[in-house]
Design a protein that fits this description.
nine-stranded mixed beta sheet; about 40% helix; globular; 17 helices; alpha/beta; 9 strands
Length: about 500
């Protein structure tokens, strides 16, 4: 069987994954629409504003502009006279307000540093739609053509430049934040636009998950190891389940039996659809295996993989494999017990734009090795992948473009020579850590790695349940960011004899 075409990054987006963020602005400016009233969400207060953004930054064709939504808060900003910093979260593949409320770390740093907080929304996501509406923006390959990482980074560079000009804050330093795809954007922006931002915190940013830079089976091996560390019997049951599902599905009315067993809302069209639904649950569980209850992707308990394996192992005696698997994945899909049945094709995070990106420049080759993972075996097949993209969008992927545009193969020497002031933070439970930077490259391009951390956990708001290692990780990040700002202010004072 060929692996499903698209893998969602959150990131949370998300920060990272498969998460989203927001902002405002004061002052007379022809590019800004009238701001909405201040909004409060999860104790984070911000204005929603709109910036008239250029559709194509790399041509001089007179395309119509589009309103880019951004969130802004200046409550703690020290102001332009004191060169108060601007903390900008690089919005990723989703609604920016969702990312903002899931990125408490940035909000908590603002009063500490006297910072303005800005959350720009990524083009083609949330409410930031070119061509006037989502239907028009997603109409075909021609209207989707400007949904690229390069255009998104240019959006942020233009927005920051304009924002600083209108606040008379040209001397204010900018620090970038991002998780998952947003973390990738933050790291790439620091390298591509070093004059725009003085540093970047890139959390759970898989910038190496391209073009054979890391082993293709890395992602699914990490997911599998997360389950195996909790319970070898749980791992073995999941590994066995794929053959059982295949065997049952081939029987007369077998697909109907599977649909009933897994409480699906409709008929099951193929075994592969059920495979993909289960694989998504296991992968997301690995991403958000947080040490406390959360609702980041779904309402989940603390260390949800442990709870999944308790369900699978606890009902082992006298219960068949499929019933045990259903009880396990119900921890992810139905922890609250409110769902009566399940849709296999739900897209609750609005990720269809990522399908386009995955079919153009975000080509992340992956495979599964049955000897090392708990999943069924599949090999990466570019020909099949490209055929799927052509059938879906009428485009042929460019699997080498990201590494051409942003690098990757010789990342250590490149960052060591040309990079500075980047934090790559990762938790080793997160399967995306396998495609990220997990070793220090230089004194200022550093990796902060936690053994029990998950997907951009460090960017989430602090809680009373945070383990010591997480508190220490965030403290290390604060120290590094403070160092960047101190160096910047020292240099500025020396230049202007302040």
């Amino acid at each position: 069987m060929t692996k499903p075409l698209f893998i969602i990054i959150l990131i949370a987006l998300l920060p990272p994954s498969p998460e989203s963020r927001r902002l405002p602005f004061l002052g007379k400016h022809s590019r800004l629409h009238k701001p909405q009233n201040n909004l409060i969400s999860n104790n984070y207060t911000y204005e929603i504003r709109y910036f008239q953004q250029t559709l194509d930054h790399f041509t001089f064709h007179d395309f119509p502009k589009f309103p880019q939504r951004y969130l802004i808060n200046t409550d703690h900003w020290a102001g332009p006279s004191r060169m108060g910093p601007i903390f900008l979260y690089c919005g990723n593949e989703g609604d920016i307000e969702w990312f903002a409320v899931n990125t408490g770390f940035v909000w908590e740093l603002a009063p500490l540093f006297g910072a303005m907080v800005v959350f720009p929304e990524h083009r083609y996501y949330g409410e930031t739609m070119p061509y006037g509406s989502r239907d028009e923006a997603y109409k075909n390959a021609s209207t989707l053509a400007h949904l690229t990482a390069e255009q998104a980074l240019a959006d942020y560079a233009v927005l920051i430049t304009d924002l600083k000009r209108n606040f008379s804050a040209e001397a204010s330093p900018v620090v970038l934040f991002g998780g998952s795809y947003g973390g990738m954007l933050a790291a790439w922006m620091r390298v591509k636009y070093p004059h725009i931002a003085i540093g970047a915190l890139a959390s759970s940013a898989p910038i190496l998950q391209f073009e054979d830079i890391v082993p293709l089976d890395t992602f699914y091996n990490i997911v599998s190891n997360d389950f195996r560390r909790e319970s070898t019997s749980c791992f073995d049951t999941i590994k066995k389940s794929w053959d059982v599902i295949t065997f049952v599905g081939r029987k007369v009315n077998g697909l109907d039996h599977l649909a009933k067993t897994f409480h699906l809302c409709g008929k099951l069209k193929s075994r592969d659809d059920l495979f993909n639904w289960l694989e998504s649950a296991y992968s997301y569980l690995a991403m958000v295996d947080y040490p406390y209850p959360s609702e980041f992707l779904m309402p989940l308990p603390a260390y949800p993989i442990k709870e999944v394996c308790k369900e699978i192992d606890g009902s082992a005696e006298g219960t068949n494999v499929l019933d045990r698997i259903f009880k396990g994945v119900s921890v992810y899909y139905n922890y609250t017990g409110k769902a009566d049945c399940f849709e296999l094709d739900d897209d609750p995070h609005g990720m269809s734009g990522w399908d386009w990106q995955a079919c153009t420049e975000m080509v992340m080759p992956m495979s599964s090795n049955k000897n090392s993972s708990m999943f069924w075996e599949w090999d990466y097949n570019y020909t099949s992948y490209a055929e799927g993209c052509w059938n879906e969008f009428g485009v042929i992927p460019r699997p080498t473009w990201i590494t051409t545009e942003f690098g990757g193969h010789n990342y250590k020497s490149v960052f060591k020579t040309f990079g500075s002031n980047i934090i790559f933070s990762n938790g080793l439970l997160d399967p995306w850590s396998g495609g990220s930077v997990v070793e220090n490259i230089s004194d200022s391009v550093v990796a902060l790695v936690t053994e029990k951390g998950a997907h951009h956990l460090d960017l989430r708001a602090a809680t009373a349940e945070d383990p010591d290692w997480l508190v220490e990780q965030r403290a290390a990040e604060v120290k590094l960011i403070k160092g960047w700002l101190d160096d910047y202010y020292t240099t500025k004072k020396a230049i202007f004899n302040m």
